[in-house]
């Protein structure tokens, strides 16, 4: 439980127990009561936020969150409610703490994001507003650390600018090819990913060759790039594409020819497999046709033959001629 004596609780978890501290147990018991919770919110929510909350819709929500690749996080008490303006959802996260924690603001932010994620996974369209409240009852007074999570950064002003504005966007779909050609070691990757959905990447052979001559790739990068073209692209003949690239790039010719040969071998194997499948299908169909003819000769009616062989009426009629 992040609310109280975190390290103690972490040790409890590692021993397979989750016994709360007396402070946590009392706080959780009181705040789980709806009327007590409404009084708490009315008293302690910031006025601007309290004014948009419909406290009559306050409901106790699930209090545990598990993030991928992270240990479980448990909030002390979590409530959900609606706004006075309609069906907007707000979640109020209340954390009880009796020991000061320098990184508590960051932890509250992580819990808030986990709540937002769960809300979206439940099928809601918009990210909910999550209001963290830290309820502190420790011996040290006043609470010694900031509850602004941005203050945990070495440069809070830079962090505020970064996280309060739109994130950087690299939209390769609108970058002109001529501009991409000047992107040096990023050029080949960007160019191919921009055009990967077009029908034939062979139209890009000259441009791809040009950027690879200016900014060579490592052997592994080249292999990864070609694999990407084969797997994600719509080029009808990947082997021909690689052959054509090899003719334009002498320095890569050996590696590219090896890749082309592997693609051709894979194509032949897939062709053989497909041929075997088709042969089996044809054999089964011939066997069913022979069975249908025998049944016709023995006087079975059309519906009986269809039920046994699975052939259509037209296919059976065709066998009669």
Explain this structure.
This protein is α+β, with helices and mostly antiparallel strands. It has 2 domains: 6-163, no CATH class; 172-265. Helices cover 52% and strands 12% of the residues. The N and C termini lie far apart (80 Å).
Shape: flat
**What is the H-and-E element order?**
HHHHEEEEEHEHHHHHHHHH
Number of helices: 14
- DSSP strand content: 5-15%
Using only C-alpha atoms, the radius of gyration works out to 33 Å
Work out the count of structural domains.
2
Whole-number mean pLDDT: 80
Instruction: Specify the structural class.
Output: alpha+beta
Uncertain segments: 1-19
First CA to last CA: what distance? 80 Å
Helix content: 40-55%
Strand order of the largest sheet: 1-4-5-6
Major sheet attributes: 4 strands, mixed
Counting DSSP E segments of at least 2 residues, the number of strands comes to 6
């Amino acid at each position: 439980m992040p609310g109280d004596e975190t390290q103690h609780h972490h040790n409890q978890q590692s021993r397979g127990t989750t016994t709360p501290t007396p402070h946590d147990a009392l706080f959780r018991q009181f705040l789980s009561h709806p009327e007590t919770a409404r009084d708490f919110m009315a008293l302690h929510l910031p006025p601007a936020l309290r004014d948009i909350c419909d406290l009559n819709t306050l409901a106790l929500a699930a209090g545990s969150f598990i993030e991928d690749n992270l240990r479980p996080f448990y909030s002390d008490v979590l409530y959900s409610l609606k706004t006075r303006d309609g069906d907007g959802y707000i979640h109020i996260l209340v954390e009880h703490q009796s020991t000061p924690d320098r990184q508590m603001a960051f932890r509250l932010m992580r819990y808030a994001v986990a709540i937002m994620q769960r809300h979206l996974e439940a099928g809601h369209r918009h990210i909910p507003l999550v209001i963290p409240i830290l309820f502190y009852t420790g011996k040290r007074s006043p609470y010694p650390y900031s509850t602004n999570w941005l203050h945990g950064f070495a440069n809070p002003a830079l962090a505020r600018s970064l996280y309060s504005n739109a994130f950087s966007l690299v939209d390769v779909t609108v970058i002109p090819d001529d501009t991409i050609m000047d992107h040096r070691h990023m050029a080949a990757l960007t160019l191919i990913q921009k055009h990967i959905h077009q029908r034939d990447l062979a139209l890009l052979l000259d441009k791809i060759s040009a950027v690879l001559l200016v900014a060579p790739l490592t052997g592994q990068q080249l292999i990864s790039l070609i694999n990407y073209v084969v797997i994600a692209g719509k080029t009808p003949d990947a082997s021909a594409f690689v052959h054509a690239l090899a003719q334009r790039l002498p320095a890569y010719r050996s590696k590219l020819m090896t890749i082309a040969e592997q693609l051709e071998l894979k194509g032949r194997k897939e062709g053989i497999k497909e041929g075997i499948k088709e042969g089996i299908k044809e054999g089964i169909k011939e066997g069913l046709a022979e069975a249908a003819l025998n049944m016709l000769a023995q006087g079975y009616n059309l519906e009986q033959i269809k039920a046994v062989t699975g052939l259509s009426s037209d296919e059976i009629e065709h066998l009669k001629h």
